[in-house]
Write a structure and sequence with these properties.
Elements (H helix, E strand, L loop, with lengths): L1 H20 L22 E2 L8 E2 L8 E2 L18 E3 L4 H6 L4 E4 L6
Antiparallel strand pairs: 1-2, 3-5, 4-5
Length: 110
């Protein structure tokens, strides 16, 4: 029984240390990620289907953006809070994952 309690205490300590150091969650921009849930910015982005995904900032006004994500990873990060991803959407673009737009402020666009 004592061995089990010591083992559980060690597992909890390792889990707390990993969380505080940001080994799995709360990753900074540029760090490798598997999904957007791991990143501080909530955007895990890859350049191509074969590249490694990394945490990245959400799009500022005028940056390319996408609201569609594949397997919890974006090809272009969505826009920052208060901005809208404005662009053409097509069925072919949805299939090929090329439905990108530009981040725009909805209050200034007609």
């Amino acid at each position: 029984m004592n061995v089990i309690l010591v083992y559980l205490a060690c597992c909890i300590a390792v889990g707390i240390a990993a969380r505080e150091r940001g080994l799995f969650l709360n990753l900074s921009d540029g760090e490798l990620c598997v999904g957007s849930f791991q990143c501080k910015s909530r955007c895990c982005q890859r350049e191509t289907g074969l590249s490694l995904a990394r945490c990245a900032d959400k799009g500022a006004e005028g940056n390319a953006c996408s609201n569609h994500l594949l397997y919890n990873v974006y090809y272009k990060c969505p826009c920052q809070h208060g901005l809208r991803c404005d662009g053409d959407k097509s069925i072919i673009g949805s299939i090929t994952n090329t439905n990108f737009g530009l981040c725009k402020d909805p209050s200034t666009t007609p």
